[in-house]
Amino acid sequence: MADSYPWIGTPLKHAKGARWFLYTEWAKTYGDIVYYMSYGRDYVVLNTYESARDLLVLRSRIYSDRPKMTMARELCGLIPLVRRTACANVSAHSVGYDNSIALADSTPRTVFMRKAVQTELSPKNLPRFQGVQIKENGLMLGKLLENPADFMDHVRIMMAYSVFAVAYGYRPQSDNDELLLMIKKMMEDFAVFATPGNFLVDILPFLKHVPAWFPGAEFKRFGEAAAVRINAVCKLPFDRVKARKAAEGTAGLSVTASFLEMPDLTPEKEHMFRWSSEAVYAAGSDTTVSAIYTFVLCMARNPDVQAKAYAELEAWLGAADMRLPTFRGPRGPAVHRQGPLGDVPLVRARAARFAPPPHAGRRLPGLHVPQGDDGNR
C-alpha cells in the first residue's frame, strides 16, 4: 500500500500525465500489486502481465465493472429523451454515457453489445470492409505526396472517414461534415469528463444534486449539453441507415446495416445497437490514429530500419510491376508476391509494442482485491 494521508489519500499531482513511471517505482518498493486511495477513490495497480491477465482476463466476469464516474455516467445521462416513448421499459437513467460499452458495468446487456461488436469486427467479417480501407489509404497517400508536413491531419482524416464508413456505410463529404463535427465534439467531451480529477463531483458525488442554475454549477450544465450531444451522435447516423433501408430495401454495407438485418429486432435491441455502432467509431478513430503516429515516430527515429523495410517491400512487390500493396482476399486484388516478408511484419509489431508496461514475470500473490476498486495497469 502506498503512503497516504487522511481523506486525501495519495495525491498524484506530481505524476499527472505520466503515472506509469510512478507506478513502476511503487512496484520496486511495494510489489507487483499496489493499492492506494486518492481523493476518496480506491485504486489497484497491476504492474505485471500475469497479474493483469489473472484479474482482467481469467476473472473478467467479476473484475470488468467500470469506475463509478458520477460526471460521465450520471450527469451526462439524466436527460429524458423522446427515445423513451419507443421503449417504455428503459428508464430515464438509461440515456447518455451510462449506455457506453466503455463505461457501462458488466451486465447481460453490456455482454450482448460487446458480442455484437466483436462479431461484426471479427477476422471472418472484417475482409468485407477492405475496399473502404484501400480507397481511403490511397487518398491519404496522395495527400502525403502533396503536403507531407500535415501528415498527422491526413492520418486522422483517413481513419475518421474509414471508421465512419465501416460503422454507418457513409463517407463524410468534407472535413466540415455535420455528422463528423458532431462526433468530434462528442469525443472532446469524453476526453474532458472521463479524465480523473477534472470534476469535483467525481470525488464528492452528493454535488450531483446541486441544481444547474446554482452559481458555480457549470459542471451540471456541461453534463446536460454533453448528454444531448452523445444521444444525437447515437441517433442521427443510425437513423440515416435505418431510413435508407426503409426506402431502398437495403442499408448497404456497414456494421449498422448488419445490426438492422438481425432477426427479432425489438426497440430495446435497437437501442443497444445504436450504442454499439457508436462504440465502433469511438474505439477505432483515436486508437488506430495513435498506432499510426507511433509507427511514423519509430520510422523517423530509425531511418536504417525504415530503409531496410522499404527495400524488402519493394522487392516483394517487384520493381518492374511497382504498385501499392493491397489485401490478399476476395475483396482486394492479390499482390505480386515473390517471397515471404521478414522485416516489415516485425516493424509493424515493434511499433505496436512501443513503450509497453514493464513486467517481471512473477506469479500473482494471494491478495484480496476489495470490491469497487479501480484497476490500473
TrEMBL record:
Its cofactor is heme. It is a single-pass membrane protein. It is found in: Membrane. InterPro entries: Cyt_P450, Cyt_P450_E_grp-I, Cyt_P450_sf, Cytochrome_P450_fung. Keywords: Heme, Iron, Membrane, Metal-binding, Monooxygenase, Oxidoreductase, Transmembrane, Transmembrane helix. Residues 355-377 are annotated as: Disordered. The keyword Transmembrane applies. The keyword Membrane applies. Pathway: Secondary metabolite biosynthesis. GO terms for molecular function: heme binding; iron ion binding; monooxygenase activity; oxidoreductase activity, acting on paired donors, with incorporation or reduction of molecular oxygen. GO terms for cellular component: membrane. Belongs to the cytochrome P450 family. This is Cytochrome P450. It comes from Rhodofomes roseus. The lineage of its organism: Eukaryota, Fungi, Dikarya, Basidiomycota, Agaricomycotina.
